[in-house]
Design brief:
The protein is an alpha/beta fold. The chain contains 15 helices and eleven strands. An eleven-stranded mixed beta sheet has the order 1-3-2-4-6-5-10-11-9-7-8, with helices on both faces. Helix 7 packs antiparallel against helix 15. The protein binds glutamine.
Length: 503
């Protein structure tokens, strides 16, 4: 079974189809690994359901789809009906969605087998998977290091051989950066390429679902399966979905590759820069043409991203109020109108002034207490920080100066890319400015953590597709390179990645 871990989905598919291996054997092997693992990559596993599904598939013997019987892990902010979706948060600890995300329906129809839900930074906010209420995930290449984030559980499960592939979500780098840290492939599609129905919202103008795999071929297969317009997500676009896998060609002859000067300057670790440039020269030898380009507004990307993403967070997370979803503070006793422990606000019950207006004010005060205490207990520090930052940036008086300005700069960043793409077909950059960092290294300094996203947020702000693939290592830690494409041109970035991987 172990040998299957080094093979692509299409090869595993053949083994299953020709009955050389049973699907159940594969799933059992996966759970042997998962149950022994100390990576903490999963929050929930579906062992009995996955085995039952495998037996059903073995019995039916219909292996027409490449994904039939293939194990997959799902980031725990994507809903699977009837199973917990926690978002790595205490506030959703017991939330069980009553419906499937569209991507889940599509994978299920293809016959993929869900192994479980993977760990993440709370509500996908972070770059290290240390912000999870379920403890951190560890890097499969070296457990002293973070796996990246926020899809760190998905990346570690793929990198650590605890699944064949995984889904993640990427708002500002959350698929690409963990893929880079764990030595695997991670693809964030164009904004609008994949339905987000059933993805718990973090920053709606940026969030995309994408794939984490061990090779480029697998990314093509998975993307093809989950992509496409969906009536249930009005931001999904009606652009035809190519046969990414069938069209996959290791061809870069004549391809124009742009190297943005801002992505290779100060702050980029020398070993990262060297590995990425080596890879670029490999592509040059294969016939690609190199060209230096400029994305002059890159310096503003982090502040723009963190203003827009937090503003949207403050709106999206307002719904967690202890009434409709998941957690409610235990200090609140339903019906008593009292706080169990002295909140200093429990005297409201005795007040009967007889003045209507006053009475209703007292009541709403009580409800507000419940919201506040629930949210205080339910959210972790990073989520609270972002809700506050976002609320601040949206306040009247600051709105024009912060949020609106950020929206305008976002336009300029997108324009930089449009201009660059007049000259070149794709852009290549490092995925992360540094090697993976150690657990605890950046948790005390949020700004340092935010800066680790500097090379990934711009493509998100511009809605562009981007892939991270491994391009070498240093002291046993993995380095990734990022290929950014034109809107909806996932095929070209896949082909380039494929050419490099083969070379
Ligand atoms: N690390 C970035 C953040 O903390 C990106 C997260 C993401 O893409 N979900 O916001």
């Amino acid at each position: 079974m172990k040998e299957l871990l080094n093979q692509s989905i299409s090869k595993i598919h053949l083994k299953l189809k020709e009955r050389e291996r049973a699907c159940l054997e594969l799933i059992e092997f996966m759970f042997e690994k998962i149950n022994k693992s100390s990576l903490n990559s999963y929050i929930t596993t579906f062992e009995s359901q996955a085995k039952a599904r495998a037996m059903e598939i073995d019995k039916k013997g219909d292996f027409n789809n490449l994904l039939t019987g293939i194990p997959i892990a799902i980031k725990d902010n994507i809903c699977i009906k009837g199973f917990p979706t926690t978002c790595g948060s205490r506030i959703l600890k017991d939330f069980i969605p009553p419906y499937n995300a569209t991507v889940i329906d599509k994978l299920d129809k293809a016959g993929a087998i869900f192994l479980g839900k993977t760990n993440l930074d709370e509500f996908a906010m972070g770059s290290s998977t240390e912000n999870s209420a379920f403890g951190p995930t560890f890097n499969p290449l070296n457990p002293e290091y973070v796996p990246g984030g926020s899809s760190g559980g998905s990346a570690a499960s793929v990198g650590g051989g605890e699944t064949i592939c995984a889904l993640g979500s990427d708002t500002g780098g959350s698929i690409r950066q963990p893929a880079s840290f764990c030595g695997i492939v991670g693809l964030k599609p164009s904004y609008g390429r994949v339905s987000r129905y059933g993805l718990v919202a973090f920053a709606s103008s940026l969030d995309q679902i994408g794939v984490l795999t061990r090779c480029v071929e697998d990314a093509a297969i998975l993307l093809e399966t989950i992509a496409g317009q969906d009536d249930r997500d009005s931001t999904s676009r009606n652009v035809s979905v190519p046969f990414y896998f069938k069209n996959l060609e290791p061809k870069v002859k004549g391809l124009k590759i742009g190297l943005p000067e801002e992505y290779f300057g100060e702050g980029i670790a020398p070993e990262v820069k060297e590995r990425v440039l080596n890879a670029v020269h490999t592509l040059e030898k294969l016939g690609a043409k190199l060209c230096e380009v400029s994305l002059p507004h890159t310096d503003y990307a982090i502040s723009t991203y963190y203003l827009i993403a937090t503003a949207e967070t403050s709106a999206n997370l307002a719904r967690y109020d202890g009434v409709r979803y998941g957690y409610r503070s235990r200090k609140w006793e339903v019906g008593s109108g009292k706080w169990e422990v002295g909140s200093g606000k429990s005297e409201v019950r005795g007040q009967k002034s007889g003045v209507r207006g006053q009475k209703s004010e007292v009541r709403s005060q009580k409800l507000k207490d419940m919201y506040e205490i629930t949210r205080d207990e339910g959210f972790g520090n990073e989520v609270k920080r972002r809700i506050m930052l976002g609320t601040f940036g949206l306040q009247s008086g600051y709105y024009d100066e912060y949020y609106l300005k950020a929206r305008k700069v976002r336009g300029l960043i997108a324009e930089d890319f449009e201009n660059a793409f007049k000259e070149v077909d794709i852009l290549i950059t490092p995925t992360s400015p540094t090697l993976p960092f150690k657990l605890g290294e950046k948790t005390k300094d949020p700004l340092q953590m935010y800066l680790s996203d500097i090379l990934t947020v711009s493509a998100s702000l511009a809605g562009l597709p981007a892939i991270s693939i491994p391009c070498g290592d240093f002291s046993g830690l993995s380095i990734g390179l990022q290929i950014i494409g034109k809107p909806f041109d996932e095929q070209t970035i896949l082909n380039t990645a494929y050419a490099y991987e083969r070379a």
